[in-house]
């Protein structure tokens, strides 16, 4: 990669830089004429005589001449500003493109690092390098050549002008330049060193912050917050110190520059004045020189700040780029090649040595052969070199000596396109990507875009633009919106068979039950699959029938009924009898929505709800007033927490005084409303829910549905005959609430749902719906075991010729044993390496190699 | 039924005799109000007990295991508390409770009851007094029984 900023800029934008330069030079005459015209207008058109003037053979009188010149001036103003605008946009675009190219190049280099290199670099350091640290480079690139050329040209012209007036004055004008030329770089050098320190320090801070976030549980578990705070605080002080020193020097440079610039006029007046007195220089010339010198200050200042910026940006560029150029970086071909070699044949290690850089990570002179299509256990405790051998076999790391071959192919010479498709490797530390379960399962099939989406009109134009930009910046042309799932590789002929295959494998690894549960909790869009929604509605009806007719189920559930009050649901559900179409909006937020507030006020319900809330608050305060906060009773049962008690005491005091409640603020009212909405009559038997209120709620529900919900895309009304997309599948199946006043109602009804779902064949679609479950950041919403199993299925789904598992499925229970038998069966006829630290587990395999301290100690 | 009616019912339970009304209201509020249709089990002999039942309405049969199967040994009815032994000391349920007719029951979980005792020592005192009375009566019964056995 280009070591210096300027060679990077020149290499990738020479043509554009020359273009910018040329346009800049073109603008010289325009600027010059623009400066000259006003003089001409004043001196010639306004104050001149002997009209008419002849221009291009046309005669102009004084007024038309003035008009001509003025319009010429106007025209030039437009042209010059237009040029400036065009140039600025051009420079900005160039800068952004170069920045994109640079960032992508950096990212691609990260992908090309050898795996052991990641022991030395952390994401906390790399991320700011690619994102913020190179940011300034983009702004600089457009100016890199044009600015010094333009301002330098200006400077030369002005100096030339002064020299033409008087060489001595010319010398005086540039007398301070040599000193500045010596002192400023000297000071700047120190600034550059400090800038480097600053960048490094910030990287360490980023790294430490990142580490604190990853290990936040450890920090709390060990009460180490103080230690980390001290550490970061120290680093921040260091940052302050460096920056302070940089400021000092930067401003010192500025000070020196300003001082020198103002020192020169001193010489002008001294020498020039003397010359004028002596009669060797006209007073007019002296004034002209002083004026010219003033113009000199502008370009000089620009050049100086350009110099400082160049130094700053160059050092940033270098401190970034030097981290992306390790000597052992993979060839770019390794990433970009798309040809796949067939890896059939025996896996052979021939005197292979490898060192991971620490004790217990070496492999010494290992030779072994695993015949094609057989299963083999690689046993050995952690630190025996087992994991290294398996990573070597997967081609993830390169041996330091020796050769690893599959058939005729040397793994070290193969690219990702072969290694990543022909070999499935699942290591002990699996990574689950942020996204859905489906994304994660099919991740191993997404090598290249396969079927490009059809685009028309605007979309096509937009796509073409994207492609041309990618070409400009040497970014890849892969289309992220294309279909990437390689069905053929997985041995499936449609996405449905792929889903089925995935389901089979999930069953084999025992993850299907978990996904089923996630599926019940997930939402699905009925417009995608009408029949599924229809089936769910059938189950709902079936369930409702059974609840009515079977004595064992009777009274376990209160179903949603448009004309009935559901005592097991809270007042909000009962009143609104609808859910927001956006599942992100919770029921708590609904009363604050504008249309709902308006409805509550109009119908007078607002007042009533506040009264209910007030009554609840009063009762709560009365019940819990003598209870201490740490008993835990308050938190578990009250509507109010310990902290809120004083607040509610105030609200109740004001609310009870029979006046018009002037003292209650909007926030207080909203709190009271909130309390009322939380009321579940069957659970909280406060005697507030009178029959009268109940009827009012039902009546209000009807008005609400008619006025607010109807024709409002923001709400979906509860309707026993309609699938409600904002609710989970489970809530759609059981269209009601399990009774809170029946023992174990929820569990019992769940059992019933499960059997009905099994009977109606809905289990499968629900699992597929579970594929759409979002696993959270790096799979944080899954358990560690689930993550490993998903990674395992991902590996198996690749249907690769060689499957390598390390420290996966190594439990000792009967289920785990069955799982391993299942794995051998699934992978029969394929090469299968299984890494484990347990000798008994290894004994389940026909072939074994036992590793100890990097050597093979036993085989069988 | 509301808290007020539940408090009325609680007041009739001998264990809560001397406890003032606000505390009974709190007890009622933190308890779960549950309905049991006839035939449903409240608890089973041998399982771990984590709550006591205060019967507000209806009756429950008390069954114990015998070699011949489950046998009814007693019936508990309105305003009695059952299963309270389980929430004071960790013993498995000594009998099975089955609703004889439709029942209305207040269920107090063990954790909450203990919290309540801790919070209001006078309730503990009352509970102690009731238990002591019961112990005294049981001791007397036992003595009578022994005397009867010796005499006969």
TrEMBL record, chain A:
Residues 347-605 form the ABC transporter domain. One of its GO terms (cellular component) is plasma membrane. Its main location: membrane. The chain crosses the membrane at residues 18-35, 65-87, 266-293. It is a multi-pass membrane protein. Keywords: ATP-binding, Membrane, Nucleotide-binding, Transmembrane, Transmembrane helix. It comes from the Bacteria. It is found in: Cell membrane. Pfam families: ABC_membrane, ABC_tran. Residues 39-312 form the ABC transmembrane type-1 domain. InterPro entries: ABC1_TM_dom, ABC1_TM_sf, ABC_transporter-like_ATP-bd, ABC_transporter-like_CS, P-loop_NTPase, Type_1_exporter. One of its GO terms (molecular function) is ATP binding. Belongs to the ABC transporter superfamily. This is Putative ABC transport system ATP-binding protein. It comes from Roseibium marinum.
UniProtKB/TrEMBL annotation, chain B:
It is a multi-pass membrane protein. The keyword Iron-sulfur does not apply. It is found in: Membrane. GO terms for cellular component: membrane. InterPro entries: CNG_cation_channel, cNMP-bd_CS, cNMP-bd_dom, cNMP-bd_dom_sf, RmlC-like_jellyroll. Keywords: Ion channel, Ion transport, Ligand-gated ion channel, Membrane, Transmembrane, Transmembrane helix, Transport. Residues 15-134 form the Cyclic nucleotide-binding domain. GO terms for molecular function: intracellularly cyclic nucleotide-activated monoatomic cation channel activity; protein-containing complex binding. The keyword Transmembrane helix applies. This is Cyclic nucleotide-binding domain-containing protein. It comes from Roseibium marinum. The lineage of its organism: Bacteria, Pseudomonadati, Pseudomonadota, Alphaproteobacteria, Hyphomicrobiales.
